[in-house]
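Hey everyone, long-time lurker, first post.

I ran two proteins through the pipeline my lab uses and got sequence/structure pairs for each. Pasting them in order. The first:
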Amino acid sequence: MHDIWQRFGWSSLRRRLCRGLADATENLARAGIRRVWIDGSFTTSRDRPNDVDGCWEYNAEVDLAQLDSVFLDTAPPRRAMKDKYGVDFLIAGTRLGDPSAGGATVQDFFQVDRDGNAKGILLVRLGADHDSE
């Protein structure tokens, strides 16, 4: 997470979003989630992003008793998640219901800009053995 703070935490708003992201990924890691993807205006040079967009990888090792229930409420507007952590996360691999997404998975949708051009997203590996990439 240190690299994310260094790269994206240049203002008080962005540092607040970084703190929320750190708290969110701490809960996700404690629940057994090992990968999170981050996207949206937070990963750009935009001075005032609204939140941190992203998704987390569900796997067989996820302990739902440890997972904050806000991460399971993926129906818009995901207000509880945004209020608590400042993040807007979906579950990776799910297909988006928005017709404009064309049935793409969350990660596929995140990897295309509004003009249809391919773009990168940030992968964060969670747990004691990993650091952000």
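...and the second, right after it:
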Amino acid sequence: MSEGRSEDASKSVPRPLERNISTLMDRRAREMDRAGLPERVAARVSDFLGSMWSLAMHAAVFGTWILANVGWIPLVPQWDPTFVVLGMVASVEAIFLTTFVLINQNRLSRIDEERSELALHIALLSERQTSKLVEISAGLAKRLDVALPDEVETLAEDPEPEAVLDEIRRQRPSSL
């Protein structure tokens, strides 16, 4: 093993892919470090809310509350027999939990939008490079008097992203 790579990783993940994964993980850590305190708190709360621990905690607290207030737990007095307080607590908790989840979702949406834009940029750049390679190959084939399929001319054309988006919108069912 060298340079911190695990033996399993060196066998299953090519080095460039391992580097890309490491870069992405570093980027995620930097994004979280750059997030403000409210966003970091919302992320932690949302992470907890999406866990089995949260479900178990809520089941225990609300279950105990209900069992105590229907009189099924001996020696524990009923403090909310009509469950009005439980309903209020649950409602207030839902307001705060929803807010935490929405704050976290907004942060994740911004990150996802940036990544989507990067992916689109890379795809367009790759398409342009591929078109140029096809154009060069077609020029070489022509010079060497090699017959090419008809679609080579189309493949050598640079796609216009706006035209592609317009065509997608035109063909998309109106219900979307």
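Reply from user beta_strand_b:
Welcome! Quick read of the second one: The mean pLDDT is 88. The chain has one domain: 35-171.
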